[in-house]
């Protein structure tokens, strides 16, 4: 059975490519998802993609992902939590509680932006963090997650 990875995007990332191109580029979320599917396929993985603007829905998706990791169907999640990165103890607790492997991924380099973007509630429960490589970061995060799963066996 081909294993899956989940590409999960949080609030406002549905607007990608439509506004603020100087910060987030011209690529749309649909383009990013297609690129993720093709990168994953090259690694023998299936990429599933989800986006939600709702914190509770992201929590439920992470719980389900944790169950599927335990079943051996899913290797983990590439997660761009959007602005919830900087606010959400609930998403932190969901990742820890579901014991789901997460690579945190940001399009922009949050550390060269406003101070309020410098803290992440997600990083302490992530395998690792990628930021500042534009939408190419999703590809790098998929490769990082796949490599981590290989190492973990
Ligand atoms: O750099 C990233 O990927 C962020 O996670 C994006 C979030 C931001 O709040 C984080 O600090 C960093 C914002 C996502 C909103 O994306 C938009 C895209 C196009 C137009 C407007 C917003």
Walk me through this protein's architecture:
The protein has one domain: Rossmann fold. The protein has helices at 21-24, 29-42, 55-71, 89-98, 136-152, and strands at residues 4-9, 46-51, 74-80, 102-106, 128-131. 41% of the residues lie in helices and 18% in strands. The chain has 153 residues and is α/β, with parallel strands linked by helices. The longest helix has 17 residues, at 55-71. Strand 3 (74-80), helix 4 (89-98) and strand 4 form a beta-alpha-beta unit. The chain is globular. The model has no long low-confidence stretch (mean pLDDT 97). Strands 2-1-3-4-5 form a five-stranded parallel beta sheet, sandwiched between helices. Helix 2 packs parallel to helix 5 and helix 3 runs parallel beside helix 4 (89-98). Bound molecules: ligand CA2. Ligand CA2 binds next to loops.
Total strands: the figure is 5
Q: What is the CATH-assigned architecture? A: 3-Layer(aba) Sandwich
Encode the helix/strand succession as letters.
EHHEHEHEEH
CATH topology: Rossmann fold
Structural class category: alpha/beta
Low-confidence segments, ≥5 residues, pLDDT <50?
none
Query: How far is the first residue's CA from the last residue's CA?
Result: 16 Å
Whole-number total of structural domains: 1
The CATH superfamily is identified as Dehydroquinase, class II
Q: Assign an overall shape.
A: globular
Task: Give the DSSP E fraction (strand runs of 2 or more residues).
Answer: 15-25%
Enumerate the strands of the largest sheet in spatial order, edge to edge or round the barrel.
2-1-3-4-5
| Associated small molecules | ligand CA2
Largest sheet: 5 strands, parallel
Radius of gyration: 14 Å
- Could you report the average pLDDT, rounded to the nearest whole number? 97
Secondary structure: helix percent: 40-55%
Number of alpha- plus pi-helical segments: 5
Text of the CATH class:
Alpha Beta
